[in-house]
């Protein structure tokens, strides 16, 4: 185990579990070097199904160079409808080739626009819109550009096999595929790859500091941003002159500009309600993401502390809370079902350990919310200490509108079958929904997160 990159440590990923030097290099030299395809889990009716019963048009889109939110906005603009009528199951990165599902309320197939860098395949209709999480997982294919130590990939793979509690690492499905395990961290992009502030916004919201939340989003310039953007954010922090800041904020930063518009419309100095209303100018999915990022940050800190204490990830200790596998998951994908939880006591630990060894159960940590029940034993000590350090407790997530969260738990170990090609160095694997390809690739490259995309 070795210390993580400082940028990753700032969002709670304190360690790598493999000791070998990384292969180096970078991802996403070209969009085609980072491919993601959703493992779909959403039923549709034929496209000619009656629109009164099935008003949502469902299509599969392959996007090259498109952020999911930007693509949804482009579709809604072309159709002349609210962006809230365009929905999807999982958010994907801009610098990639991604294949994912979308639904549009009240649209016909011939109304869908032709967009550069987009291929659309209409699948049918549905009685409800897609919701975040309406997928089983994602398949990834990543090419590492200019690796400095490509031969180190073998030693890293062996270490990840051992960490995952896998004796041989060899997958049952192929001699060319190795089973590995990594901590199920939330990746850097959860918090902002170049400007990791989303969790700071969420933490301020949970602390009922709406002004602090807005300023964390509008201010806090970073060197990774263009100089003009840095100057605009610094101006916001220094002056609180919302109208003048609006004139300086780049037009491409439309969420920042929406907040500034709301603040500029205030009669006098804004109060907590006005700051909250400014945050509510951004799309509802982004409002939820603020609080989710705060939960994710706490989760990462819990995993890092468990690593530091040397507690296992592949099997429980007394006091842990485990979940069981989803029996309806697609073939080849192990999917934790966090609706099926069990607290592990001395009487159950041997039987639950056997379930974990067979991939039928998973140790969990909390994504804290109003209904979160913390673990017992040493894991419970870790969870309570992290929340105390952040000044949080479950009741703090009883928040208005899209900001509230009941919480859940999440598996702490991410196991996958890895296919590793050498020329070029290519990593291919599948992950359950909500898990990040970068938490696998970071172990292999061990570089600045910016070079992970």
Keywords:
single chain; 453 residues; alpha+beta; Alpha-Beta Plaits; nine-stranded mixed beta sheet; 15 strands; globular; RNA binding; tRNA processing; EC 5.4.99.27; TruD_catalytic
Mean pLDDT: 91
Shape: globular
Looking at this structure, what is the CATH superfamily of the largest domain? TruD, catalytic domain
The percent of residues in helical segments reads 25-40%
Give the number of helices.
13
Tell me the series of helices and strands, N- to C-terminal.
Answer: EHEEEHEEEEHEHHHHHHHEEHEHEEEH
Approximately how much beta-strand content do the residues carry?
A: 15-25%
- Terminal Cα separation, in Å? 23 Å
Task: Profile the largest sheet.
Answer: 9 strands, mixed
Query: What's the alpha carbon Rg, rounded to whole Å?
Result: 22 Å
CATH architecture of the largest domain: 2-Layer Sandwich
CATH topology-level fold name of the largest domain: Pseudouridine synthase
**Broad CATH class of the largest domain:** Alpha Beta
Provide structural commentary.
The protein is built from 13 helices and 15 strands. The chain is α+β, with helices and mostly antiparallel strands and 453 residues long. Helix 7 packs antiparallel against helix 8 and helix 8 runs antiparallel to helix 9. It is globular, with a radius of gyration of 22 Å. It starts with a strand and ends in an 8-residue tail after the last helix.
